[in-house]
Here is the input.
Amino acid sequence: MQLIYEDKFDAANELKNAAIPNRLYKYFPLFDEYRNKYEEENLKRINSLLEGQIWVSKYDMLNDPFEYKMLYLDKEKIEKHDWPVEMLDDFLEGIKKFSLTTCFSGETENNMPMWAHYANNHKGYCVSYRVTKPELITPVFYEPKRVGIASVAINLLSAFHNKDEEKMLKYSTLYNLSLCCKHSLWEYENEYRLVYLSYNSNNGQLISLEEIGLEVESIFIGHKTEPLQYESLLKIGKSLGCNVYQMLFEENSEDFKLVPRKLH
Here is the structure.
């Protein structure tokens, strides 16, 4: 953040890119009859894997209802500069509206909470991706408290109004970093995310992995994945030419963990 304040964007990007792992993981749910239209949802998700696509969502469609809320407008400071809080709030909400997000984890495939929370209690699957464009990925920062802003919001709106491209870059970069910040309670996820700007989306859209610099490396089938979905994922792995594993629990080991068994 400090490097951006000092207008050292190249140095800031180099530092950020160096922090992105070569491999990221994403957990996907597969649903059963307890969810409406579950077959349709599962088919869309599996087809997107086969076609080399990934879904990016509007922030209010993500599982955490408090996404993008780490920053708040410091009303007292803003009013001292004679700026209407409502106008700034509308402006920042407009940016959020066009910012689509997809989230990854820097953890391994052997993460039981992630399987439970994001792969429908081990009924889904996990994909590991090779990262070829680290400049598009941002690590998530975890903070215990929200941060009040005034100057960033005011300067960003002023830069747009004055068409000052240099300041637009500086303050939009600072603001976009806030979209990759969550409460410290989420730290166990070790999250990385991609924020994708789109002006033609309702709840989200599919984008190609090639566009965002990701390649499917391996597919990990959940411990409780249904046989039909198991077979579909196995076929997709063969079609993509990637490794496929199933996650199994070691019943006769003192280690409390899942172990990937290679299928092909």
About this structure: The chain has one domain: 2-262. The first helix runs from residue 2 to 5.
